[in-house]
């Protein structure tokens, strides 16, 4: 600020010298021999210009009082600095204030160095420079005043200034020129704005201007947008053609990858050239690749109703290493004019789609049938191409085989000594039917007394029979490959003498043919109605009597126990992906585990859409062992990749808290989900859930992995009702070098008795067979909609019952086929239990044949397998409707019954399904449960009344 002295009193404006002996104008005063000095200098009005704090720099000299001879005691070596704040010009020569009252004192100014008479004589004046500040100021301007009260001094110059932070570009943001604050310690916030072609990274963007006019404490920043790169740290320049930048940041533009190009500036991605593509999930910096050519040199080996196909890999892989093969199976007519896709029961090993090896074994084909197999070569970009996958085709015809079973026989006619039968052709002839063999014997005799009759057609007349006698008959078909199996046993009876005579008397000439036909029809129906089945078989079509003992397929990935690593952290790094904690957002607590709380959250990985996740955290204060045990589950999960196994998204180990991040399953644990939806799912839906669990366990068992804690509570369900196996805290590795791989526990820890096999309870031996036992319990939980296995029995009672060969009974409305499969899973001899491969196959057959699920299991009077009986409560002991509802675990409907007038058990026994619906019992499962209880209660009450009479 240019300073002008407006007026002065007592000081002289004279010429003098500075320290360099340059001539200058100064204000001097040296009235030290006069008492009561009060000399003033007053500046003109100084405009504030927005400053809140003003700085004054003064250059002056002061003579040492002790160097002045006979100086009085009033001599001073200091002077005072004042200021007066005002909105307008108020001081003139006539109205100046020559007193302290209207001014605010800034400070008393003392010299650091003074000069003496000797110095003065030698013209060596010692100049002092002092700076003082004052504030805060709020008015338009101010005056400065200097007061001398007895010093010998010269005021050489006065500089008035304020401080500011200059305009600056920092972190790709522009910050404007900013005045300092009212105090020297003040921090003034300056808001920044991103430079062109940049965008905010963290908000808000701001710097702080301190009292010295320096910028400090940067918060937030900007960075160059995608398609722009930094230049000299303060400019974002567009990527030139032929380059790209896919994301924001300080990185530089990159050259377009192979087989891609960009033709304009500021490209964020290079477009693939014609015929080249990027797979889903591949980053923009990845090269574009093409689809593979077709497989080569296919070889087929036909063995009856199976075929092995082998081929050479494609000549061109499209510059990718993820080539896999799909097998398309078509069944064709002999003339090859029409083909259709193969049936669902055709099996492919190791799989039909996504084959990584150039070999496949196809079984369950129909005999004597023409097939066309297309072997497609696909890779990660095949689905991006508008053209179908390249493939090679091969036609094969399966060999003739023995025909399938004849489904049923019909009686055409009968006499006293003969029966005429007919039957349809087998569903699978498996070649040309040469003839049929009919076997029969009297029902009262044994099968060793049977007689065989051959027929070239699907009808036969059996002669030489005894009148009025019941015969057991079976039939089978024959091709060049041999006989098929005999059909089920059916019973047919010849006419008695009386029946035959009666039939003759009723034959009138006009209606003889009609009457005879009618009698034959009626007799046929009667005969069919008394069909007897001697060999009872399980309803599910292929009872599991022979289980193969082979291990996983060649090339199958094998599970590696993380505890076998010298450093368990190495297993975490190998099998679990580290996630940046900034991509994880925790939202709410959904549960608690052994090591800490479980949260619902979101995960947003770069280049991928945001997804919901479950987040397990490790509580504070953990030991190193607890940390290893916590992360071991991630090391285990990270090795699995199957749609029915919970998916690990990654881990957070480089910040606190330590986290395991998995996919989020909307419907939670299977047991609680079923209890909440009791009776809401069909049998087919429940079997579908069981099939998913079995498929997941099949995958684990093929990896030589034992779960040890398979239960409905450890199965999670997503929004599409897909069930996934979870909770791998108890699992252990199966030793590969033994024929019967086991894990022997030495921990002595708690075992879930209700789900654990006898050998695992008794000897701590866990195998895939013990997991099969647990799976049978899970089946029971699912079919009972989450009921507790073995109800309220103690653990010791459960162990004792199992040792005595007792097993759980079928849940209400459970199909016979499913309960039989449960019993197979609960075989005492673990080698007799089905493998998970067999279980999946069985469930697939049940799903394809829903009629096999209609037969509902019941507890027979003398079962071949002793079953536990949860006895029906004694309803006569209940005194109220509340007691009865509590006994059948339906207490939630107490108010519905009482408010609708059903206040006594006598009234309840008269209720119908319409009554239940009317009072608000809408769930089908609950209706059935309550109605069954009402019927039992009605029966007990009726028996009591009969006894009293």
From TrEMBL:
<keyword id="KW-1015">Disulfide bond</keyword>
<dbReference type="Pfam" id="PF07699">
    <property type="entry name" value="Ephrin_rec_like"/>
</dbReference>
<feature type="domain" description="Fibronectin type-III">
    <location>
        <begin position="402"/>
        <end position="497"/>
    </location>
</feature>
<dbReference type="Pfam" id="PF07714">
    <property type="entry name" value="PK_Tyr_Ser-Thr"/>
</dbReference>
<dbReference type="Pfam" id="PF25599">
    <property type="entry name" value="Ephrin_CRD"/>
</dbReference>
<keyword id="KW-0325">Glycoprotein</keyword>
<dbReference type="InterPro" id="IPR011641">
    <property type="entry name" value="Tyr-kin_ephrin_A/B_rcpt-like"/>
</dbReference>
<feature type="disulfide bond">
    <location>
        <begin position="30"/>
        <end position="152"/>
    </location>
</feature>
<dbReference type="InterPro" id="IPR042819">
    <property type="entry name" value="EphB1_SAM"/>
</dbReference>
<keyword id="KW-0966">Cell projection</keyword>
<dbReference type="InterPro" id="IPR001660">
    <property type="entry name" value="SAM"/>
</dbReference>
<dbReference type="InterPro" id="IPR013783">
    <property type="entry name" value="Ig-like_fold"/>
</dbReference>
<keyword id="KW-0829">Tyrosine-protein kinase</keyword>
<dbReference type="GO" id="GO:0005524">
    <property type="term" value="F:ATP binding"/>
</dbReference>
<dbReference type="GO" id="GO:0007155">
    <property type="term" value="P:cell adhesion"/>
</dbReference>
<dbReference type="InterPro" id="IPR017441">
    <property type="entry name" value="Protein_kinase_ATP_BS"/>
</dbReference>
<dbReference type="InterPro" id="IPR013761">
    <property type="entry name" value="SAM/pointed_sf"/>
</dbReference>
<dbReference type="InterPro" id="IPR001426">
    <property type="entry name" value="Tyr_kinase_rcpt_V_CS"/>
</dbReference>
<keyword id="KW-0418">Kinase</keyword>
<dbReference type="InterPro" id="IPR027936">
    <property type="entry name" value="Eph_TM"/>
</dbReference>
<feature type="binding site">
    <location>
        <begin position="590"/>
        <end position="598"/>
    </location>
    <ligand>
        <name>ATP</name>
    </ligand>
</feature>
<dbReference type="GO" id="GO:0005886">
    <property type="term" value="C:plasma membrane"/>
</dbReference>
<keyword id="KW-0597">Phosphoprotein</keyword>
<dbReference type="InterPro" id="IPR003961">
    <property type="entry name" value="FN3_dom"/>
</dbReference>
<dbReference type="GO" id="GO:0005005">
    <property type="term" value="F:transmembrane-ephrin receptor activity"/>
</dbReference>
<keyword id="KW-0067">ATP-binding</keyword>
<dbReference type="InterPro" id="IPR009030">
    <property type="entry name" value="Growth_fac_rcpt_cys_sf"/>
</dbReference>
<feature type="binding site">
    <location>
        <position position="616"/>
    </location>
    <ligand>
        <name>ATP</name>
    </ligand>
</feature>
<keyword id="KW-1003">Cell membrane</keyword>
<dbReference type="InterPro" id="IPR036116">
    <property type="entry name" value="FN3_sf"/>
</dbReference>
<comment type="function">
    <text>Receptor tyrosine kinase which binds promiscuously transmembrane ephrin-B family ligands residing on adjacent cells, leading to contact-dependent bidirectional signaling into neighboring cells. The signaling pathway downstream of the receptor is referred to as forward signaling while the signaling pathway downstream of the ephrin ligand is referred to as reverse signaling.</text>
</comment>
<feature type="disulfide bond">
    <location>
        <begin position="65"/>
        <end position="75"/>
    </location>
</feature>
<keyword id="KW-0812">Transmembrane</keyword>
<dbReference type="Pfam" id="PF01404">
    <property type="entry name" value="Ephrin_lbd"/>
</dbReference>
<dbReference type="Pfam" id="PF00041">
    <property type="entry name" value="fn3"/>
</dbReference>
<dbReference type="InterPro" id="IPR020635">
    <property type="entry name" value="Tyr_kinase_cat_dom"/>
</dbReference>
<keyword id="KW-0808">Transferase</keyword>
<dbReference type="InterPro" id="IPR001245">
    <property type="entry name" value="Ser-Thr/Tyr_kinase_cat_dom"/>
</dbReference>
<protein>
    <recommendedName>
        <fullName>receptor protein-tyrosine kinase</fullName>
        <ecNumber>2.7.10.1</ecNumber>
    </recommendedName>
</protein>
<dbReference type="InterPro" id="IPR050449">
    <property type="entry name" value="Ephrin_rcpt_TKs"/>
</dbReference>
<dbReference type="GO" id="GO:0031901">
    <property type="term" value="C:early endosome membrane"/>
</dbReference>
<feature type="domain" description="Protein kinase">
    <location>
        <begin position="584"/>
        <end position="847"/>
    </location>
</feature>
